[in-house]
Specification:
Blueprint (H helix, E strand, L loop, with lengths): L9 H14 L4 E3 L6 E3 L9 E2 L2 E2 L7
Antiparallel strand pairs: 1-2, 3-4
Amino acid sequence: MPVPKKKTSKSRRDRRRAHDKLAFPHATRTCPQCGEPSAMHRVCASCGFYQGKEVVHIPIE
């Protein structure tokens, strides 16, 4: 079984992975509570709801 002779540095590893972020756009969904677009599996930034429950109280201005 092949074993690396030297440790791969963080910068070399990250440079190799850098193009992956450009190829895949962030997955978004519309919030069922307010209808605003938000990231999947994250609390909605505009209303503070996640899975039908208020997780973060965001005051309405």
